[in-house]
Amino acid sequence: MAAIEMKHIIKKYGDGFPAVNDVSIDIADGEFVILVGPSGCGKSTLLRMIVGLEDITDGDMIINGQRVNEKAPRDRNLSMVFQNYALYPHLTVYENIAFPLRLSKTPDADIDKRVREASTLLELDDHLERKPANLSGGQRQRVAMGRAIVRQADAFLFDEPLSNLDAKLRGQMRTEISRLQRRLGITTVYVTHDQTEAMTLGDRVAVMKKGILQQIASPRELYEQPVNLFVAGFIGSPPMNFLPAEVRGDGKLQTPLGPIALTTDLQRQAVQGHDVLLMGVRPEAFEDAKLVDPDKRDKGDVFNAQVDVTEWLGNEQYAYIPFEASAEIRDQLRDLSRELDSDQLRTQLIIAIDSTSRIRAGRTADIWVDTRRMHLFDPKTGVNLTRDEQAGARLTAEVEEERREEMEEARNMPLGEAPDVQGSSSGDGSVGARDGAGSRSSGTQEAGSRRV
Ligand SMILES: Nc1ncnc2c1ncn2[C@@H]1O[C@H](COP(=O)(O)OP(=O)(O)OP(=O)(O)O)[C@@H](O)[C@H]1O
Ligand SMILES: [Mg+2]
């Protein structure tokens, strides 16, 4: 088990360009942290510096209280699972999992015990004698994880481990990784450029852009209280809508949709000193005005708009509403969508409306917007002027609490189909789930005896 602290980490490659620029992140023992951001933002570089595969130009990498900048990868006792699983094709599943233990000359009986524990946990018992070529992508993924598990590493590091899999399998593996991480209680850092993966897996998500950490918070905090335009646009699918908004004297904003009232104190404070702002509203903050409860209706504003396209998906419905924006705003949205690796930010509104709504394409409709959920961004700096820091912190604290509870539950729960491994945590360093979770919550430091 390990806590990982990164302090002002900088990485400059040969050309002097900072691929990672002054990143500081504290990862708690047992925490699941995701590094996410567009291609080239420095995620893999940061991960490789944690493991020791890449030199650190400046800053401190601290694992379990010890600075490890100069330590070789094998002395850091971390386990990395790559995108291509690097399995040995000529070895059976059993031998692939056992590989690191053979390398470290672990006695056969120990190897057998640990491999079988891991394979049970990963539901690979029926495949131990097969070769990797005869396995599905998901099974191969699990073998790679099995290898990481038997090493009894202090932390798991994943670099886009699911990007080779099809969408369905990716979903399944996501659930499995998440379940496994909870059971083992092993500190995990996971790199992905997929915001859905980031949102569903992590306790906290670190959003990076061009080597710089933008925000690290629970998925919910990122979603509801993003620090800036970049995080707001990156997190959420379909993405947040951005509209130019002129500040009027009467407590309203002039938008391409019409005047919209400022409803919260934060919003009224945010507009001080600004003429033009960028308004951000998530698709689900809109509704077909006909379907809004009368008592809820005055919590927001209604505008009339021409609907371009509707998409009815059974359980939900989207409507697309184009709007006019100045050239300046269009440029800004274009830049932002380039930064986000996304072509979704256009000068059209995407709104999520009730699936029973009869709003139809090509007609005008009254649309209600929950103005309490409107964010206002400084168009020059991208800073979210309406961010409620305390509300955000509460959202992340809740997740921390949930994680502790879940770990506790996992510790008290039988391992699904797997046999009870409680008896195996007898101080021999075996990596039974209860062993993992137990050592973490009781704070006993078994790491030393777990070294491979
Ligand atoms: N060995 C290297 N030498 C020089 N520059 C490098 C090297 N490796 C990466 N870079 C540069 O550092 C930056 C960060 O790269 P990194 O691989 O960390 O990005 P990433 O966020 O993992 O992207 P992706 O999602 O595409 O994997 C990029 O601009 C990349 O071109
Ligand atoms: Mg990468």
Structural overview:
This protein is of the alpha+beta class and 452 residues long. It folds into 2 domains: 4-223, Rossmann fold, CATH 3.40.50.300; 229-387, no CATH class. Helix content is 32%, strand content 25%. It contains 14 helices and 21 strands. It has helices at 43-51, 93-103, 108-121, 137-150, 167-184, 195-201, 219-224, 229-234, 265-270, 294-297, 327-339, 389-412, 433-442, 447-450, and strands at residues 4-12, 18-27, 32-36, 58-63, 66-67, 78-81, 155-159, 187-192, 204-209, 212-217, 241-247, 252-255, 258-261, 276-281, 286-288, 301-306, 309-312, 317-322, 348-353, 364-369, 375-377. The strands form 5 sheets. It has a 6-stranded mixed beta sheet with strand order 6-7-8-3-9-10, sandwiched between helices. A 5-stranded antiparallel beta sheet has the order 13-12-11-14-21. Helix 2 (93-103) packs parallel to helix 4 (137-150) and helix 12 packs across helix 13. The radius of gyration is 25 Å and the shape is elongated. The two termini are 13 Å apart. 42% of the residues are buried. Bound molecules: adenosine-5'-triphosphate and magnesium ion.
What's the SSE blueprint?
Blueprint: E1 4-12, E2 18-27, E3 32-36, H1 43-51, E4 58-63, E5 66-67, E6 78-81, H2 93-103, H3 108-121, H4 137-150, E7 155-159, H5 167-184, E8 187-192, H6 195-201, E9 204-209, E10 212-217, H7 219-224, H8 229-234, E11 241-247, E12 252-255, E13 258-261, H9 265-270, E14 276-281, E15 286-288, H10 294-297, E16 301-306, E17 309-312, E18 317-322, H11 327-339, E19 348-353, E20 364-369, E21 375-377, H12 389-412, H13 433-442, H14 447-450
Parallel strand pairs: 3-8, 3-9, 6-7, 7-8
Antiparallel strand pairs: 1-2, 1-4, 4-5, 9-10, 11-12, 11-14, 12-13, 14-21, 15-20, 16-20, 17-18, 18-19
The site of adenosine-5'-triphosphate has 12 residues, from helix 1.
